[in-house]
Automatic annotation (TrEMBL), chains A, B:
Domain of life: Bacteria
GO molecular function, one term: oxidoreductase activity
Protein species of origin: Micromonospora sonchi
Annotated protein name in UniProt: Flavoprotein oxidoreductase
UniProt entry keywords in alphabetical sequence: FAD, Flavoprotein, Oxidoreductase, Redox-active center
Amino acid sequence: MAERMIVVGGDAAGMATAAQARRRRDRHDLEIVAFERGHFTSYSACGIPYWISGLVPDREQLVARDPATHREQFDIDVRIRHEVTAIDLDRREVLARDLDGGGEVRERFDTLMYAAGAVPIKPDWARSDMAGVFGVQTLDDGTALRQWLDAEPGPRRAVVVGGGYIGVEMAEALVLRGLSVTLVERGEQPMSTVDPDMARLVTEAMRGVGVDIRTGVRVIGLSERDGRVSGVETDTDPIPADLVVLGLGVRPNTALAEAAGLPLGPTGGIRVDRRMRVTGVPGVWAAGDCVETLHRVSGMPVHVPLGTHANKQGRVAGINIGGGYATFAGVIGTAVTKVCDLEVGRTGLREQEALAAGFEFVTVIAESTNRAGYYPGARPMTVKLIAERTSGRLLGAQIVGWSEAAKRIDTLAVALWNKMTVDDMTALDLGYAPPYAPVWDPVLVAARKAVDALAR
Amino acid sequence: MAERMIVVGGDAAGMATAAQARRRRDRHDLEIVAFERGHFTSYSACGIPYWISGLVPDREQLVARDPATHREQFDIDVRIRHEVTAIDLDRREVLARDLDGGGEVRERFDTLMYAAGAVPIKPDWARSDMAGVFGVQTLDDGTALRQWLDAEPGPRRAVVVGGGYIGVEMAEALVLRGLSVTLVERGEQPMSTVDPDMARLVTEAMRGVGVDIRTGVRVIGLSERDGRVSGVETDTDPIPADLVVLGLGVRPNTALAEAAGLPLGPTGGIRVDRRMRVTGVPGVWAAGDCVETLHRVSGMPVHVPLGTHANKQGRVAGINIGGGYATFAGVIGTAVTKVCDLEVGRTGLREQEALAAGFEFVTVIAESTNRAGYYPGARPMTVKLIAERTSGRLLGAQIVGWSEAAKRIDTLAVALWNKMTVDDMTALDLGYAPPYAPVWDPVLVAARKAVDALAR
């Protein structure tokens, strides 16, 4: 009899696991059943803002593999609109509710992959069922928001609460759709994923396209009229709104896991080992936005919900479940985003994180250009480096620029991954041609400046 | 009495040396005299094609620091239009000819920086003084070519001989100026700096903009009419031309050095140690396009004339001459270029070089896209990796793509610099967001494919 794997959650981590396992074991050896609460599998949640804005015309473009493809090409029994409601580790069973057809199914497993993703953080004031309030976590969320936008008459005034990646991207998307947009951020700056001195550039760019950014403002409630949202109440002035987008971040979706007794770490994510096995629970695996992972620079566990990690972790789990050997090496906090025409990249620790990890460090900010200064289209690029004071080792880097800036962070990410010192980095043989870089690449300019700072 | 340094050659390497030395020692401690044969100092030779095409409007934009700036801001006694004609190591003197004023000067030195650059390779047939034949090595060469193009009536039919970086860039520049352009390449493909399978994409792109590319054709002579070039004779058909550009590569400019007894290595470049001291010759330094350097992957000496190395080597020499400590770590062969709208990057060894170095390896070519497939502007990107068979270590990489492709080579260059294996590389935490990368970055896609190839 074939071994039986149940996958809880049909997005990146779960389906990458299933596909990798299938590559190594056919259906006579491993039967795979995947439960997905929503309507979609294997889609790009990161792409939702671009579909909302209209930049990506069709929702289906965001779906890498639909359920039919998983069934037909990979022999994976995908059941969408099925919400797993309980996991019984002793009986090796899951219970799932058919959200459309009604009724419950009970399915046996030998191997369980828990890939339930993350859920939006909702303060008490956001726990309402009034119309016009949206998270942007799943493609179903995005679909609901798109319908609200496309209705006649559509909303005109949007408030985005929270200035993280999703908040910033959604604010821009809504501006592109012609709405008047206010972004409310509790902290000093939106885009707190980079240091305030770098985030300031992002704030300026967003104001430049007309986003009304209110910082240091706390939302305390929503107001409604006829069951529809009519405004956001804050600790200062109320803000009228006929659309509210929640961008307050996410937390690991672990309700089911906790109930089943799976171990959680200090970040609230599920604890897994290097092979993505749930620590101490034989036959149970977890991957994606619901797990915590090792930060290679701080050495501490972190929760970094990001599609690229989910895919890598799923691949690792699937190789192992398939009988191979693979480990997930951890993360270093690399992230890139587009904010209006501004490109933002970061890797490693930002100042606050480096302090929290106990590092003593110097920081430098170097101004340069993306191309040779004389080459058409040359634009400013700002590179910030954080280097350990005694060793000179790179701890973190941030880039803000106007074009061809964001992905330069990868150069720094690989340097950081390899524990390079800023002194070593000044010697790096990077590509030089006038359309692509000044003769001293911005990364080298910053490394030289960091070497000088360390010598002081 | 101040120590006295003479710099032979006033471009990147020489002037970077002078500027760095000056940062650490003032003119009472170190007197600096720099001789430059041409009219310009510290200019971007790599930028010449873009000035020729008109993309960069003014020649002066290519000059990073003119002689007056060097004199006034750095107390460097720059003498342009002075050609050094002899170096006497015993008497610690150089002899220089004043090309404009006439006459000769004799100058004493304690320290000598030899930074005479490179000279174009000229077969016998190219050693002619007929009008309309140009190299593109110095800004004076570029100026002469620009004058030829700007004359009335200007040339209409150009032949570029040689399909290296400069040949390819010049062919495009001349097309942009409206000339009919033929590129003659002796080998199988132009752009032999990447493997033929990757160079083919470049050939196609160049043909797409109308360059007539003739491969496997050898030039054997030039024909003339009234002292002006009228055509190129080849081992097949003659090609009419009223402008010929030589792009046959360069060799280290070592005539003076050899006469003075400086040691040359197997590549024909001057032999220097890690601090850029000429091996075995006290008080004499060399840097830039005239020296040979260590290739960190093959372990062999190479001659890689490139502005970015010249600047780094000059900085290293200048720090040392200034009393500090710095070493040049060698190169890994990273290069990027723009060919029409195509972006080309390479690092490490190409197949032929890896064979010559004695490596046994696998190669993979992975097709991917620069952005998430659904994001507007997504274009194909082709990544080739070469990995050592037994260790899995990355030996070389090449990228060809249509936008945001070239500088991705830096990610691979840093991985290669750090001797990463392709297996390690699959774990790299690279930036992901739909405008900048698919969820599996092209670099990761290629690394995964290489891991699979190694397992076979």
